[in-house]
Design brief:
about 190 residues, four-stranded mixed beta sheet
Length: about 190
Amino acid sequence: MTKGKLYVISGPSGAGKGTICKKVLEEDDNIRFSVSMTTREPREGEEDAVDYFFVTKEEFERLLAEGGLLEHNLYVDNYYGTPRKQVVQWLEEGHDVILEIDYHGAFQVRDAYPEAVLVFILPPSVEELRARIMGRGSETEETMNKRLDEAMNDLAQADKYDYRVVNENLEAAVEEVQQIMKIERSKEA
């Protein structure tokens, strides 16, 4: 059995990476999405074990100490990380796996799995990014400013990725990510 391919999708908050991942997953039954773990509170409409595994800081730190996370980071005063066990199992079963994580985690994954394919999602402009973050309606002025500061740090990392996709048109961006995956799979054949 051929081992699955690990894809890391990153980009600043508001770039549309979550929407792109959902669309890609809808169209390919062999791809699995790794749900990240976080210590932040759920936003309205988010579900535990669907959008994130929402855990306490103590639970997160225990799993981290046990080596149960593939990557982790502290972002806007909350921990985020990828549980290791499920990702490894899916890859061994031959499924491709998508991780939607920040650049800190992406580089940790690249260190652990050099064959991982890193894809960075870019907004069409900084102004559009700001509008998307504000449009969520779930951010205070303080957290929005933190997210925008982090977004600028994120954007500075884009050239360290294998691929960069500008999300100006959602369908075109989804198609471009699908083409990247097709190219990467063909390298294994």
